[in-house]
């Protein structure tokens, strides 16, 4: 898959990246790069309305990376505070 990039300046959430749940393995790798001062959380949803924080990438202030090894419907980035920019780059296995 080509990398997908979502960026958020200031507080708020990006649109959700819609994952392909029909790919085996499902795996999504991601990285977040920050510029300026931000506090951010990577989130996922199973139904499009209730969002859950990633188990290890929540309330972070520095560059981080992680993954999803289990199927989720969407992934997004939420900037909790700060005026900088956080950029989320995702790559899903098996998607071209």
- Domain count: 1
Structural class: mainly beta
Proportion in β-strands: over 45%
**H and E order:** EEEEEEEEE
The CATH architecture designation is Sandwich
Number of helices: 0
Mean pLDDT reading:
95
Rg computed from alpha carbons, rounded to a whole number of angstroms: 13 Å
CATH topology descriptor: Jelly Rolls
Shape: globular
Task: Give keywords.
0% helix; 96 residues; 5-stranded antiparallel β-sheet; Jelly Rolls; 4-stranded antiparallel β-sheet; mainly beta; 9 strands
Question: What can you see in these coordinates?
Answer:
It is a single chain. The chain is mainly beta. It has a single domain, classed as Jelly Rolls. It has no helices and nine strands. Strands 2, 3, 5, 6 and 8 form a five-stranded antiparallel β-sheet that branches. The chain has a four-stranded antiparallel β-sheet with strand order 1-9-4-7, with no helix packed on it. It is globular.
What is this structure's SSE topology?
Elements: E1 4-9, E2 12-13, E3 17-18, E4 28-35, E5 38-45, E6 51-53, E7 64-68, E8 74-82, E9 85-92
Antiparallel strand pairs: 1-9, 2-8, 3-8, 4-7, 4-9, 5-6, 5-8
Short description:
The protein is mainly β and 96 residues long. It contains no helices and 9 strands. Strands 2, 3, 5, 6 and 8 form a 5-stranded antiparallel sheet that branches.
């Amino acid at each position: 898959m080509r990398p997908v990039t979502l960026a958020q300046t200031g507080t708020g959430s990006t649109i959700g990246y819609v994952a392909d749940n029909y790919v085996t393995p499902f795996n999504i790798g991601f990285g977040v790069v920050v510029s300026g001062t931000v506090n951010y959380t990577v989130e996922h949803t199973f139904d499009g309305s209730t969002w859950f924080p990633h188990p290890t990438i929540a309330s972070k202030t520095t560059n981080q990376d992680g993954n999803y090894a289990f199927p989720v419907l969407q992934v997004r980035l939420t900037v909790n505070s700060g005026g900088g920019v956080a950029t989320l780059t995702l790559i899903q296995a098996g998607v071209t």
